[in-house]
């Protein structure tokens, strides 16, 4: 996997899976422990597509054809069915679905470094002193998926929060605890031999051996209970969720959700036989099976060098098939009203083109795409100035995005959770609803 400009490999350092059941870690059973079972006001799921590295707003949804050459870039705008809305002509399939989503063109924040900006856009909180972006996880605040898991809980035998194809370093639960961590696929759904081994015992383990291991774990539980009477309640709870982990391994619901090979070749081709396309298809399958939140970490949008060549030859063709088909597929299945889709990078790219025909990091202005889940379609919120350097109207930021996402999912943005030491922690840092969208 290519490194970002800061030299860090963005690979996930945490594996969550069945192997934990038979070792010292009990990550999966803890993951399955849902401490908050309150029902949402609206049963809306979330697919959060994170374009890791930062998508260029000027070369996708906020082109400036009248700007000087050193700003406007190589691409041409194309008309859409939305009056006055122009997007890049290299996104024809997205253009065909433009009436199913909306754009916030006046999005901005104050940071242009990957690590802090990543944390900001995935949690709604800018990190404070002591933040170490090289750690994985590095959450000071819980990410969106963990909050959704905490507030809404799981449906059926599938996890509430799934991360694919890997876990972003800022995708952790922080003080919400391991029971609200992501179930991490940690595999590329576009691989021909893709599978989710964490859900299924290895083929060499026969069903009777699996039963034996379960009995052994039950014996260990009994030993712990007799040896440590003070931990009876906790040991019983862990045992219950260990049982649920075993149920997950043999759940037909889970097997069906994660079996992307069951999809028709034609549809898989339409999404695109690449990581972003197959991750979007997998996300749709997971939401259909009851997963509350799916995050997709897709890279590398960090186009410091050869921005236009990389976008034209690689990134935009993938984006075009994946995002367009996701919206069409959700709509055709009657799932768009109940599935909120958010597509964003951690920031945009510099309006001025650099000496390497690239664009650098730019937090002061970028575009966020939202659709489904109660979002008004075909709306363009705000605008940037003549060179897309800063919002010219209606500025919004991560706090407002999180207030809007949570409200649409039936989670009160003004709600609080508590840290392990009992301190209240607000879900949203004084964000306001993006009223033009709802």
Explain this structure.
- With 438 residues, the protein is α/β, with parallel strands linked by helices.
- The protein has one domain (18-207, 233-399): Alkaline Phosphatase, subunit A, CATH 3.40.720.
- 32% of the residues lie in helices and 14% in strands.
- It has twelve helices and 16 strands.
- The strands form five sheets. An eight-stranded mixed β-sheet has the order 6-5-7-1-8-11-4-12, with helices on both faces. Strands 2-3 form a two-stranded antiparallel ribbon.
- A hairpin with a 6-residue loop joins strand 13 and strand 14 (391-393).
- The relative contact order is 0.21.
Largest beta-sheet characterization: 8 strands, mixed
Distance between the termini: 38 Å
Major sheet strand order: 6-5-7-1-8-11-4-12
Find the structural class using helix and strand composition: alpha/beta
Mean pLDDT: 86
Low-confidence stretches: 9-40, 201-207, 223-227, 229-237
Instruction: Work out the strand percent.
Output: 5-15%
Helix content: 25-40%
CATH topology: Alkaline Phosphatase, subunit A
Write a brief structural summary.
Helix content is 32%, strand content 14%. With 438 residues, it is α/β, with parallel strands linked by helices.
Secondary-structure map:
Layout: H1 27-31, E1 45-52, H2 69-72, E2 77-79, E3 86-88, H3 92-96, E4 101-107, H4 114-123, H5 144-152, E5 161-164, E6 183-184, H6 207-227, H7 232-249, H8 252-258, H9 265-271, H10 275-289, E7 293-299, H11 307-332, E8 339-344, E9 348-349, E10 361-362, E11 366-371, E12 380-381, E13 383-384, E14 391-393, H12 398-408, E15 416-418, E16 424-426
Parallel strand pairs: 1-7, 1-8, 4-12, 5-6, 5-7
Antiparallel strand pairs: 2-3, 4-11, 8-11, 9-10, 13-14, 15-16
